[in-house]
């Protein structure tokens, strides 16, 4: 798939290159040639090819083809070079232009293989062309032209060979290929004529009356069968026979010769003459058809000896008068076809079976039939009936016994000897075959040979040797003697070793090894071991010579007990240190009894050591060697070379019959349990496994049953088997007395059951099982998993790397960290994922985090070596993640290969850079491409084709938005006012460097990183800003690069490794230091305590903790010496561009003491937000690229062009999120009870862990309230993030997106240009639901606060989706988004407090209007319909509202308007915001107008007049002003206000019923008042009592509302009457 994409991309670029650079006259031809030639080019052969080389090669081919006047094969062999050929290649290129006829490619390939020339690529194209009479190319035809071309066309053959530079050899090859292609041409041209000769031969057979009819019929059938594509004809000749006296003369009729036999001289005449001399006339009749082989190999089609089919021609007297000879190659199907389907052969088979005289149902008969069916076809054709019978009978009689047998058949004409050798399969090797071939070659004085080996289910292997011999030499041989030579052995030790070696390796190699190694075996070895053992050891030594570092053999002597074992280790140069070997053997559960070393000295002086260990295994006494040998040797080698670990788990290898991988599986689970803080060590867990071998085997069986992709049964049966094994394990626990061991075994069962997927059964590209494991878990199913518990977790294990990836949900993202915490890296990652979870509230994915450790780093490694090892480990880690991740294709979601998934589809996996992996994104994306992962380079954001966070400065700029807000709310504009800063980091860093360039008015007093301390007591803002710009632009920089001339007096750059630093007077004054000398760490602590405007954290480390925490709680030992308490901070604002600079408790303490800060996950969310935008944009554009509407190059250009747009979207999110925190803080004291109830609700629902997130208890909150304090910004940050995450998930699970207004919310997540150009794609985005839910959730909570949705649900019983629908409708009905933006535009024009007041007015309107819709449109909550219903009427009321207001409502409006105008708000905005106090009533007014069909403005006027007359506005003000102590009272207050609005609307409708034609609203109202006089009197009395009461309570409100209800109901009834 990946190569196809690569090929398509290259060919697309090639087409562009042709259009832009090729000569105009050549373009069409080049396009045609490219389409024909490169379409045949294998996609994977395109790897590493550039467009330039493809273009140069194509042009070279065109030039090669231009002139071809003589139609002879045109051959070119060359080594492409840029200077000479316009393109380059590391291979030798062979190009051939010839006629488009069969066999050209195969024939050329055969010759190249015969010469052992390595072929790297082949492309063969048949071209339809048009040439002029001079052979000049005019056009390469395509399409219909090509299909209708009359000529057979031309063939263009292209081979890339291993580099050849010998000119003479290339010339010789060129000449040979020319000859071969000429032969191909002759064969193809003569094919029709040969077929005619075949028909003639059939006619001659039919006319041969001297031959019995059944034989003639069989012969004709055979010739017909032959013609039906069962032979590739290479030539034909006809032999004429003439009798002169008693002499028979035979000669070839040259005029009849065809194909290769036109020129080739054959032995046909000699062979026929021999037949005439040695065969009777009857025999000649019987063998009218005969078969033989040519002595010359074919160079056409296949490199083998061609076959002859000979047909004798008889005259009327029955004498031979001629012979047809057809030479050719049987097609491949002939060699696998049942001989009973082949004429002639079927007769032979029948006759052999008849001769056998066996009962057809007998075993021997069936066995003979089987032997005949697989018998070599050459033997079937060429053997006589008797020869065939004799051989087949002997083969059948072997009866599957382990015998070595030899069968020999001489060709009747003495040209070939055919030998069949049957040998036991387990003893057959290439060396054995070569040895046999050498023996036969010597016995028959063979000129040339070929062989064929046949493997079947039989225990015997059959080797068929075809030996070409000299017919003129007499062959004398004894078959028994030859057979004996094959099995013979010798007796003397060294001689026996030599003969054994010859027998094993053949004469040449056997003698060579005997000379080189045989004499080097020491006397002690010869005394202890038989030469047969020596041969085995020589084999091991040869493996060492060929490059292996270690060879071994595990065995047991026949006379030894079952618990005894012997191990032989083989090593070159020196013996293996016992101090290295013994621990491995002991960990394998073996006790070493003795060790005997033997040094075998080779002829060149090299010593090969054989170390034999005598061992005892104590865990089991019934070791079956055959079952453990291979596993043991494999395991030992892997342990020795570091591919498996050496620990106590290895003791299980022999006793449990588990393989090393299955043991590594148990070890991996043990290591994962340790990462879960399981209280038992890995060693103790291993000891438990060894103490209960049968249970251990069951645990592995449980895993294999659960996850083996090859399972005999369906999933239900698999589940039943799992339960049965689990029950067996749990039943076995009755025998386990130790509680710790019991707990370990139970935990193994739990963790295996919590495993959802594994790559344990996957194979790598080399066909071997992967050298690392990865497991996907559901951690919530594992007992005692540390909090917070992620939804999914992937654990990757190998001896080289370990890592975890924790995900909070299905759609999750976060960085991958290169950790140095070998023992508890998961704890580190868990802390990070907790922060990531809340940080990701602003984006689509929930939090995720990963981390890995490189386990094989050594102190002596260089920095480059460490980096290489880290990258390799990172690759393994990424592979482990991708191995288990579903993929998306056009056909849907595809599961990983060889993975049994116990969970739902889960294709979303996105990673990012983090500490130690900042430059690794391209590596991850390359692996994504290798895996064909659907996200492509969206898999890892921030790569070379993506948004460079440092270049954009997006993380720092996002955090700076928070800094600006902090200062703006203090009345300071940091973009226009100088302010003082101290910071953590340096200008080379992303966050610190970009942050310190966010304002030219920064006066950076001090900063530090891990190397230096920078101090500038009185900096010049402009000059220092310019210098920071210079440093940031450098490829690398440190504080030592700062221009010292620009540092103010008393400052400087100091090394952190200095013993002490002299404190200048200027430093003393600036940082309130009394001492004259401080250590670097002491100075850093004083910098952190500096009295400045801003502390900017852009580095790594935790520098501030709470007074209630100790350094152990912080978990950052490296900075213990410099860390201060939050109570010591004297800065006004903290900006957290970096992560974890301050503990959460420290933030809270700082905020309670008056400091201003958010949290790191709020301030630096810009980076993760930018990455999410990148991923979502790439997902969208990659789909466009995939369907061909956009090239990858243009996609990349488009991505880059939207950099500023993406940054704007991200910064807007940061702005809104910090604004939301400010709004929550602004109301924190007044709404403390509501906030407390929200916390309790989330806690009770299991969505918030107070202790984990450091949220104060109810008692602490109550104590703060007494002190006039409430939740701080850091705590509110947590609540806002959690509420967003929960709301987002709830909306994702709902059917929210069924309305266009809601569905289009996804557009707000993309740059405007992308929406304009790809609106359909945006709306059909793969993550449409998730993006929409995220945008809606963020918008609701950013504006309305974290408790809005829950309050609406509590008050109305509506579901989350309905609240979102109603909210969306209200925002559009009232155009509130535009008003909100207008308020935001007043930054620095009016005070932030006034902005908050205006926003709270809008919030109040949204709350009441949303609740109105939820109650009054409960079953019609479709935003589009509601907006259409109310939008037009609201436009009418918006301008008329101020004039219609009466009494208290009018006074409130005017008061708010005047207040906002006095504060500097524009009048139009002030009017809009002031009217929000009564704006929600427009909905009821419009509904009333609809119910009465009265003019809308009349209804509105009467509504407000009614409110004035009945003092309903005053009454609503009293309800709003009432004190609320609990949630029920809050709900009651909201209910009273809703009832009051309903009653005022109902009263208005009732009064409107009195409006008659010609009457005014005033007369209408008077008529109504007259009718309801008694009830109005009661209401006036009620009002009097309310006025007289200083603080009305809820009971009075209830009674008053009841009075109004009576009045409203009376009005309704009267109107209806």
Describe the protein.
It is a single chain. By secondary structure, the protein is α+β, with helices and mostly antiparallel strands. Helix content is 51%, strand content 15%. It has 65 helices and 39 strands. The strands form 10 sheets. It has a 7-stranded mixed β-sheet with strand order 21-22-23-24-26-25-29, sandwiched between helices. Strand 37 (1104-1105), helix 37 (1111-1114) and strand 38 form a beta-alpha-beta unit. Helix 15 crosses helix 17 (493-517) and helix 42 (1203-1226) crosses helix 50 (1328-1344). The longest helix is centred in the N-terminal third of the chain and has 40 residues, at 167-206. It is elongated and about 155 Å long. The two termini are 79 Å apart. The relative contact order is 0.03. The mean pLDDT is 86.
């Amino acid at each position: 798939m990946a190569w196809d994409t690569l090929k398509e991309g290259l060919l697309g670029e090639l087409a562009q290159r042709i259009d832009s650079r090729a000569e105009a006259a050549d373009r069409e031809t080049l396009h045609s040639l490219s389409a024909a030639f490169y379409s045949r080019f294998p996609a994977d052969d395109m790897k590493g090819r550039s467009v330039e080389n493809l273009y140069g090669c194509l042009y070279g081919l065109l030039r090669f083809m231009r002139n071809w006047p003589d139609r002879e094969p045109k051959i070119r062999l060359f080594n492409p070079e840029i200077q000479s050929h316009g393109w380059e290649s590391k291979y030798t290129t062979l190009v051939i232009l010839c006629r488009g006829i069969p066999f050209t490619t195969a024939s050329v390939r055969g010759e190249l293989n015969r010469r052992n020339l390595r072929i790297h690529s082949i492309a063969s194209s048949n071209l339809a062309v048009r040439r002029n009479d001079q052979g000049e190319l005019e056009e390469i035809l395509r399409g219909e032209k090509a299909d209708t071309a009359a000529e057979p066309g031309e063939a263009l053959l292209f081979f890339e060979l291993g580099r050849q530079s010998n000119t003479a050899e290339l010339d010789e090859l060129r000449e040979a290929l020319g000859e071969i292609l000429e032969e191909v041409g002759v064969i193809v041209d003569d094919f029709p004529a040969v077929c005619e000769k075949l028909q003639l031969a059939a006619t001659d057979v039919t006319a041969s009356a001297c031959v019995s009819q059944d034989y003639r019929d069989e012969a004709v059938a055979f010739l017909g069968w032959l013609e039906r594509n069962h032979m590739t004809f290479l030539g034909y000749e006809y032999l004429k026979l003439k009798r002169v006296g008693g002499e028979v003369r035979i000669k070839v009729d040259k005029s009849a010769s065809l194909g290769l036999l036109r020129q080739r001289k054959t032995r046909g005449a000699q062979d026929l003459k021999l037949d005439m001399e040695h065969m009777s006339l009857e025999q000649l009749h019987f063998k009218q058809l005969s078969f033989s082989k040519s002595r010359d190999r074919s160079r056409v089609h296949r490199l083998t000896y061609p076959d002859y089919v000979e047909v004798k021609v008889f005259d009327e007297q029955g004498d031979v008068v001629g012979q047809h000879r057809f030479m050719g190659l049987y097609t491949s199907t002939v060699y696998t076809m049942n001989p009973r389907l082949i004429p002639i052969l079927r007769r032979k088979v029948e006759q052999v079976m008849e001769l056998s005289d066996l009962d057809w149902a007998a075993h021997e008969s069936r066995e003979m039939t089987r032997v005949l069916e697989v018998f070599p076809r050459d033997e079937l054709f060429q053997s006589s009936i008797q020869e065939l019978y004799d051989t087949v009978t002997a083969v059948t009689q072997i009866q599957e016994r382990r015998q070595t047998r030899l069968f020999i058949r001489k060709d009747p004409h003495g040209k070939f000897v055919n030998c069949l050798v049957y040998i036991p399969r387990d003893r057959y090797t290439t060396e054995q075959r070569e040895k046999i071939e050498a023996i036969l070659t010597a016995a028959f004085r063979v000129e040339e040979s070929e062989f064929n080996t046949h493997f079947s289910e039989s225990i015997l292997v059959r080797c068929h040797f075809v030996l070409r011999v000299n017919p003129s030499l007499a062959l004398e041989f004894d078959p028994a003697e030859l057979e004996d030579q094959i099995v013979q052995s010798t007796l003397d030790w060294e001689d026996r070793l030599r003969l054994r070696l010859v027998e094993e390796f053949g004469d040449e190699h056997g003698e060579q090894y005997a000379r080189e190694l045989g004499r080097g075996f020491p006397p002690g070895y010869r005394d202890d071991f038989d030469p047969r053992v020596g041969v085995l050891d020589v084999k091991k030594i040869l493996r060492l010579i060929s490059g292996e570092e270690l060879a071994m053999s595990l065995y047991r002597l026949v006379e030894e007990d079952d618990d005894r074992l012997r191990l032989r280790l083989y090593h070159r140069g020196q013996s293996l240190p016992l101090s290295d070997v013994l621990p491995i053997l002991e960990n394998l559960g073996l006790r070493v009894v003795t060790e005997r070393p033997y040094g075998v000295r080779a002829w060149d002086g090299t010593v090969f050591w054989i170390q034999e260990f005598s061992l005892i295994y104590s865990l089991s006494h019934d070791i079956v060697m055959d079952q453990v040998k291979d596993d043991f040797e494999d395991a030992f080698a892997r342990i020795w070379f570091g591919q498996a670990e050496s620990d106590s788990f290895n003791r299980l290898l022999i006793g449990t019959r588990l393989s090393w991988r299955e043991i590594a599986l148990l070890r991996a689970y043990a290591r994962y349990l340790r990462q879960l803080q399981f209280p038992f060590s890995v060693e103790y867990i291993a000891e438990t496994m060894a103490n209960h071998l049968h249970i251990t085997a069951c645990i592995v069986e449980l895993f294999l049953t659960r996850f083996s992709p090859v399972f005999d049964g369906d999933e239900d049966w698999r589940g039943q088997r799992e339960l049965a094994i689990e029950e067996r394990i749990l039943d076995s626990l009755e025998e386990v007395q130790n509680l710790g061991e019991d707990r370990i075994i139970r935990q193994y069962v739990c963790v295996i059951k919590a495993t959802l997927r594994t790559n344990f059964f996957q194979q790598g590209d080399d066909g071997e099982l992967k050298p690392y494991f990865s497991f996907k878990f559901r951690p919530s199913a594992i007992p005692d998993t540390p909090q917070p518990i992620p939804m999914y977790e992937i654990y990757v294990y190998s001896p080289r790397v370990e890592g975890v990836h924790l995900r909070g949900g299905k759609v999750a993202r976060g960085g991958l960290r290169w950790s140095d915490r070998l023992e508890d890296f998961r704890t580190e990652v868990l802390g990070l994922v907790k922060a990531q979870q809340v940080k990701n509230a602003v984006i689509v994915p929930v939090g995720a985090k990963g981390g890995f450790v490189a386990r094989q780093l050594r102190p002596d490694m260089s920095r480059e070596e460490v980096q290489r090892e880290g990258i390799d480990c990172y690759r393994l880690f990424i592979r482990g993640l991708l191995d288990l991740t579903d993929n998306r294709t056009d056909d849907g979601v595809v599961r990983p290969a060889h993975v049994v998934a116990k969970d739902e589809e889960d294709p979303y996996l996105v990673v990012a850079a983090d500490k130690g992996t900042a430059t690794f994104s391209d590596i991850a994306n390359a692996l994504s491409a290798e895996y064909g992962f659907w996200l492509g380079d969206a898999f890892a954001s921030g790569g070379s084709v993506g948004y460079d966070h440092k270049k954009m400065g997006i993380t720092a700029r996002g955090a700076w938005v928070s800094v600006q807000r902090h200062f703006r709310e203090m009345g300071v504009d940091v973009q226009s006012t100088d302010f003082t800063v101290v910071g953590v980091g340096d200008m080379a860093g992303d966050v610190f460097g970009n942050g310190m360039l966010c304002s030219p008015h920064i006066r950076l007093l001090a900063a530090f990183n891990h190397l230096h301390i920078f101090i500038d007591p009185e900096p010049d803002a402009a000059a220092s800003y310019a210098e920071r710009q210079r440093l940031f632009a450098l490829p690398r920089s440190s504080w030592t690069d700062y221009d010292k001339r620009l540092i103010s007096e008393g400052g400087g750059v100091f090394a952190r490794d200095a013993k002490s630093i002299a404190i200048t007077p200027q430093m003393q004054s600036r940082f309130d230091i009394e001492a004259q000398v401080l250590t670097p760490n002491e100075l850093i602590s004083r910098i952190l305590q500096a009295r400045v405007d801003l502390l900017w954290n852009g580095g790594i480390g935790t520098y501030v903790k709470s007074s209630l925490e100790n350094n152990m709680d912080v978990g950052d030992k490296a900075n213990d010496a410099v860390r201060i308490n939050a109570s010591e901070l004297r800065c006004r604002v903290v900006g957290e561009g970096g992560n974890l600079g301050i503990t959460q408790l420290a933030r809270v303490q700082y905020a309670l003491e008056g400091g201003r800060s958010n949290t790191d996950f709020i301030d630096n969310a810009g980076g993760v937000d930018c990455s999410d935008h990148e991923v979502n944009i790439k997902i969208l554009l990659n789909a466009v690229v995939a369907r061909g509407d956009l090239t990858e190059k243009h996609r990349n250009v488009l991505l880059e062009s939207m950099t500023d747009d993406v940054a704007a979207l991200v910064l807007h999110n940061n702005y809104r999120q910090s604004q939301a925190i400010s709004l929550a803080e602004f109301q924190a004291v007044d709404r403390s009870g509501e906030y407390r109830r929200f916390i309790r609700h989330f806690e009770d629902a299991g969505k918030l862990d107070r202790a984990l997130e450091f949220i104060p208890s109810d008692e602490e909150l109550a104590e703060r309230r007494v002190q006039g304090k409430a939740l701080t910004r850091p705590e509110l940050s947590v609540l806002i993030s959690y509420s967003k995450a929960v709301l987002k998930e709830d909306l994702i699970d709902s059917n929210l997106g069924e309305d266009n207004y809601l569905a289009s919310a996804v557009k707000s997540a993309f740059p405007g240009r992308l929406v304009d150009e790809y609106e359909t794609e945006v709306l059909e985005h793969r993550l449409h639901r998730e993006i929409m839910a995220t945008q809606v959730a963020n918008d609701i909570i950013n504006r309305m606060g974290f408790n809005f949705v829950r309050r609406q649900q509590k008050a109305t019983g509506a579901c989350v989706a309905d609240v979102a629908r109603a909210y969306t409708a209200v925002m559009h009905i009232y155009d509130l988004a535009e008003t909100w933006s207008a308020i935001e535009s007043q930054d620095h024009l009016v005070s932030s407090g006034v902005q908050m007041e205006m926003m709270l007015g809008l919030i109040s309107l949204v709350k009441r209007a949303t609740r109105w819709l939820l109650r009054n449109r409960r079953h019609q909550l479709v935003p589009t319909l509601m907006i259409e219903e109310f939008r037009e009427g609201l436009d009418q009321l918006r301008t008329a509202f101020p004039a219609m207001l009466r009494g208290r409502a009018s006074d409130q409006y005017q008061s708010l308007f005047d207040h906002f105008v006095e504060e500097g708000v524009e009048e139009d905005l002030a009017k809009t915001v002031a009217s929000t106090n009564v704006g929600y009533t427009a909905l009821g007014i419009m509904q009333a107008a609809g119910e009465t069909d009265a003019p809308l403005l009349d209804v509105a006027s009467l509504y407000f007049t009614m409110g004035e007359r009945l003092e309903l506005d005053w009454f609503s003000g009293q309800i709003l002003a009432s004190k609320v102590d609990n949630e029920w009272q809050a709900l009651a207050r909201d209910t009273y206000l809703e009832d009051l609005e309903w009653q005022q609307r109902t009263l208005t409708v009732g009064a409107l019923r009195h409006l008659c034609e010609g009457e005014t609203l005033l007369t209408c109202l008077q008529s109504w008042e007259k009718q309801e006089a008694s009830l109005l009197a009661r209401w006036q009395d009620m009002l009097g009592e309310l006025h007289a009461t200083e603080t009305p309570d809820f009971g009075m409100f209830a009674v008053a509302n009841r009075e109004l209800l009576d009045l409203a109901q009376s009005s309704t009834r009267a109107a209806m009457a």
